[in-house]
Design brief:
Helices cover 35% and strands 25% of the residues. By secondary structure, the chain is α/β, with parallel strands linked by helices. α2 packs across α3 and α4 runs parallel beside α6.
């Protein structure tokens, strides 16, 4: 991957960076709907492109994310490629393309939504989903970075990414995002809680809690 190997993603805070980004490990960010998962990924992409990385962002939930990308100024950035996956097989093709193009960061939002939609009728859903996860692992083993959000099942302490048994086979690094009810959010990574707020055009990491 050339010069991309010397660059690391960032969310804009060195301490949180150290908890999120581990060499060779895809990162899975999970939490309930509206907790801030997409905002975290977009913040990482924005800050990392500013550092010199390229990013290949794949939405599995349609084009609604464009509104947030616009408000955060991502659509103006060079080095960002955006795609929308319409099926598990399409997602697999897009991830393969991102690897072939030597993308610095591959981001999938969300990794398991299409799997949840197809597993009841697509006999190859498990196989294709595992293949996508394996591709993310391959990308990180080659010196790239992979970040994905994940929908969840369960509540409170029992909350885990849907399909965790398959996800954990290739992706062991996770971070959980929750809401506090006070307009603040928490991202738990590396055994610590980090607080943030979502603003009109960014997310703000909170140092003093």
């Amino acid at each position: 991957m050339g010069a991309q190997e010397r660059l690391r993603p960032t969310i804009g805070d060195p301490e949180l960076d150290g908890a999120l980004f581990i060499d060779g490990e895809p990162l899975i960010i999970y939490g309930e709907p509206g907790s801030g998962k997409t905002n975290i990924v977009l913040k990482i992409i924005k800050e990392s492109i500013g550092r010199g990385l390229t990013a290949y962002y794949i939405s599995t939930e349609g084009s609604i994310v464009y509104n947030r990308m616009t408000s955060m100024g991502l659509l103006e950035l060079k080095g960002l490629y955006i795609a929308i996956a319409h099926s598990l097989s399409h997602l697999s093709k897009l991830v393969s393309q991102a690897i072939a193009e030597h993308s610095g960061i591959i981001a999938i939002d969300s990794i398991n939504s299409l799997y949840r939609a197809e597993v009841g009728f697509n006999q190859r859903a498990n196989e294709i989903f595992l293949g996508v996860l394996a591709l993310l692992r391959l990308h990180t083993s080659l010196g790239g970075w992979a970040i994905a959000t994940a929908q969840v099942r369960g509540e409170d302490e029992d909350m885990v990414p849907s399909g965790i048994d398959l996800i954990s086979f290739y992706c062991r690094k996770t971070a959980r995002v929750t809401r506090t009810g006070l307009g603040e959010r928490i991202i738990e990574a590396g055994g610590k809680r980090h607080y943030f707020r979502i603003s009109e055009n960014d997310i703000e990491l909170i140092k003093d809690i």
